[in-house]
Amino acid sequence: MIRRIERESQKEQKKYIGIDIGSVSVKAVVIDEAKGVLENHYVRSHGQSIETVLIVLKDIFNRISIDDVYGMAATGSGGKLLAGITGISFINEVVAQSKATSVFHPEVRTVIEIGGEDSKLIMLEEDKSSGKEDAQGKPV
Length: 140
Fold this sequence. Notes:
The protein is an alpha/beta fold. It has one domain: 2-Layer Sandwich (Nucleotidyltransferase, domain 5), CATH 3.30.420.40. It has a five-stranded mixed beta sheet, covered by helices on one side. It has a two-stranded antiparallel ribbon with strand order 6-7. It is 24% helix and 30% strand. The protein is built from three helices and seven strands.
């Protein structure tokens, strides 16, 4: 398990948790309002993905109050199952990878993802929009 412990000055900030449940591992990240990574986790699931997610979340919530978490979403092959069980949002992994890449590395145009069961090639276009979105989240 890999993790980064939050700094003292960030204890009062809103936090968001993203969980990727793949066929071989569970990944989780805790970010702050400024999209800074506070913690990151990578744990092999050994075919027990939901049990592994519970262990990771318990670890996170031992340090972070659930009241400080303003959003949580899941992706990956087990993400829909977790979302159905917990009521959190499910986001398609290609959408999640594309959005994260455009936010954290806007200069990147190609993403190659090699997972436990499949591989993906994602080609990203440069965002030439005004930065504004309509009610459905589409650029205007």
